[in-house]
Structure prediction request, 755 residues.
Amino acid sequence: MYERTPAPTPSGWRASPTGWRAVSPTVWALGVTSLVTDISSEMITSVLPVYVVLHLHLTPMAFGAVDGLYQVAAAAVRLSSGAVADRWRHHKAVAAAGYGLSAVAKLGYVVAASWPWFLAVVTVDRLGKGVRTAPRDALIAAASTPQTTATAFGVHRALDAAGTALGPLATFALLTIAPGRFDQVFVASFVAALVGVAALLLLVDAPPRSPQDGPPRSLVAHATEALAAPGFGRVAVAALVVSAATVSDGLLYLVLQQQAAFEPSRVTLLFVGTPLAYFVLAGPFGVLADRRVGTRTLFLGGHVALGLVYALLWGGASSAVGVIGAVVLLGAYYAATDGVLAAMASRVLPEPVRATGLGLLATCTTAARGGAALAFGAAWTWASAPTALAAFGVALAAGVVAAAWLLRDTPGAPIRVEGGTA
Amino acid sequence: MTGTARSGRLVAFAAVVVVAIAIVGVSLWRARPSAPAAATTPEGVAPPGGLTSMPPAPVIAVRHLAPGDGWSALAFAPLAAPEGPRYVTSLRCERIHVGGGRGLCLQAEGLAGRALVFDSQQAVQLTVPLTGPPSRARVSRDGRFAAFTVFESGHSYADDTFSTRTTILDLERGTPLPDLETWVTRQGERRVTRQDINYWGVTFVPDGRSFYATLAFGGTPYLVEGDLVSREMRVLAAKVECPSLSPDGRRIAFKRAEGLRWRLWVRELASGVEHVVGGETRSIDDQVEWLDDGRLLYQFPSDDGNNLWVADVDGPAPARVFMHEAWSPAILR
Prediction:
């Protein structure tokens, strides 16, 4: 149906170099946008449970409702925003709308005094996150060549992870200076979100809009076409089977905390340590995928790392070395899979439906992870943590074997470039 | 995109960052707590609450929330004149309780804080670091034990679970009792062995060895009775949160979730008969304090400010304000 369309090369950039220097300024700019935006949103995430229960005086049941509501909101929007961006051929505008929506929501936290308002604000915030992801990833793919896609995603995810690590630290600093002043956290988060929008608008170059061939088609037609793209179905199913065996990091931390029996306040270190490892490894792993081993090997390897985390916890990682090992392996898992999956999918998706396909993929994996978290929680409650880990380990191993088979023909080998120097 | 245009936009972005840092900095500068009040009040200047020394018992201890120097400080007022002048101390607390010549003051700092045990002169005897933001505080009537609950939250982008942690301190020894989650808890004949358990809201029995608290698992909060000596607990009833024992030891006031809201209820311990507090229809999230055997005190944030309210346990009379600009009530009888 389609030839693999080479991504348009951004002006002023040659396609030949690979590695760090091959990454377009646009990708760095998108990375800065994500870094600042992630600081903003993680500041909120780290105080949300406490704020909801302590200051809004909601019951835990209401808190669960908030949680469920925004998961659903994000999934629904993510599914369609990529298709909308493809349909109107304006990814930067749709991404900007998403970042803008979340920024407005941050202002909402400052003024939302009662819980109906608060629910509305949380929903808008998550809608914004759902809107921006797929078109943003399409911009990254458009700003790189097939030889540098994984590196570009690696650089972007590294900066994103840096924001994830810095957000809770920023909150901690703010609340240390002004104890109990959650409004200060919300104000700072709002300002940071605006800086993120500014980074996107000022620093990111929109790819040249290719002329539309034929009349605009429906969103469903976009989705159908993305699903029919050779190789994409296999990538999506492979991602689905491994995601269904993925335990959320929050649950893994909980297991780790109970086993190692360390001070609950040190759990914060886990929440900073994992993104830190992710930050350090994402860039090098992207280069590795592009130049040495290919995206397929890295994606599978990342899930092996996750399997090792399960094994470590199953064996009872009570020593400091075990805890650090688990945190680093978890960071490596994220670094080897998240951006790499987006890069792998970007290569098989034709440019006109790329954001559509990335949106579909993100929705699938999020839904699978959500189901996995429920299943793991249930298994832990009714059986035990080691039993749940063992079951998920077996499922993950089966998933990795299935994914390896599904991805056997996917362009996974590094793309050799003549005269590459970097 | 030419180089000049890009550098122009880089400069514009740098300007945005500088302005953003300035806004956050100024906002934070204005929000930081004012310097602690001087140890001695200068001559001729009235102290924040009006009183210069501790009034004689019975007194009510509160978190003073009037704007100004003493904001959020531990304060005392005569129980007979709660709206009159207060003695405002220099201890800043989020949550307060007193008993038997001792007091407990929970301070928040960042996403954690510390628990301070103070004596009858408000001198700090013991400091314990908290592992999360403070939630509930109690001191036994004889001042022998103290208990506090903190929230512990996850900071993950994947998961927003949170839990509570409750610590009981032996104030005679100055040491914490073993973690409640390691005690033996029975529901009927069965031992509770689940992983997803949380304890909060301890209230002590004046006998010096037992207490009531909330134990939650599987999404339901239960009333438990605990024994400080044998370190055992047993489940008494479901859907009971933040119990508070009446001075005569016969009843427990608690909050119960009804949909998204909390109502105040009272339970007769001997018979297990429960009834809702008819005079208070708003959603109350507090571990209440008994003013006497027939009236409850609790904090409620309303348009009128952060005030203490009083409701009759057995009558339909509507709740009314007991004390303005005060939270976290505790009565020293």
